[in-house]
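Hello,

I think I submitted the iron/sulfur cluster job twice by accident. Can you confirm which output corresponds to this input? Input:
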Amino acid sequence: MAERSSSAIYIHIPFCRRECFYCNFSKFTYERNSVNRYTELLCSELRLRKDRNSIVRTIYFGGGSPAIIPDASMTKIVEVLYENFNIQKLSEMTIEINPEECSMEKLRFLKSAGFNRISIGVQSFSDTDLKYLSRNHSGVQSLEALETAFKAGFDSVSADMIIGLPDQNKKTLTNNIEILSSSFANHLSAYILEGVKEFGGRRSPDEDHQSNLYNAFREKILNTEFEQYEVSNFCRAEAYSEHNMNYWKGGSYIGAGLSASGYENGIDYTNYSDMGKYSRSIENMKIPIADRIKNDPVKRALIIGLRLTNGIEKEKFAVYESGIRELIEEGFLEETKSHFRVVPSRMVVLNDILTYLI
Ligand code: SF4
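Support: Only one job matched these inputs. Its output is below.
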């Protein structure tokens, strides 16, 4: 049979050593028996999704904290991926990991298992910020983790950063940027802290403060070797995340694991986020999809495409042109010869721009 279009696979591992108060991902506290059981279920789901025709270029293990599962479980999952999918031409396999898990031994194992890209949950190099976030690591540990990952042989080392903590200021951001630019990271993702409620002595961040910090971060990081290519993503030496670029360009991808999302044959879907329903579906030999949505393809491409700094190809979005022209007049969007894109300093209000357009 002829090879079909290339695709990607996202694998969700929903276990963490502890649960961070600001995190909305689907996850459980690590417990060995549960991990073993989940590994079996996930492998069964991958077998149910078997597809040897599509060429898979990228695989991304997210969570949760996927790197905390035992090496034997990871080896098993990777073996099942090789058995059931065409991944001979794989160019990128990423795993998320926390700094305190980045021992040379663990990183060498992950490298030998086939991972060539690593995304480290640095969040900030400020220990004050890390204390607010109740993280288990220090700024120094993060810096060491980035170096260890590079020395372990990863082609691409990414740092996940958080912007917009209540007491974060421009000095902290400047310090973070200076450390990042002289570190071994060649990619970074910078997300604005969301969904924090006042609790005990903990304050929730103010939106204007967060917008100011995001714009300050953007401006300062662009004075280094890093360039922005998506609203939250920056890289140097063209070390883009191929997996995420496939998503933002509307490529198909399989989502496997509890609550994972995928996009195949024009349908967006989400797996069950309830472990009971997820496991019963697999035991009944059914792919554990809870919801399927057929979105308007042009609208979908607009929503995800405007996240990219290059924007969207003009000719494909004629139906939105009058709204786009109004936003150009008002200074939110701009046009190049071939593309419409968000004015860089307005990236922070992307959601408002999209709400207006659709
Ligand atoms: S370690 Fe990461 S995935 Fe786990 S709870 Fe904290 S932020 Fe969420």
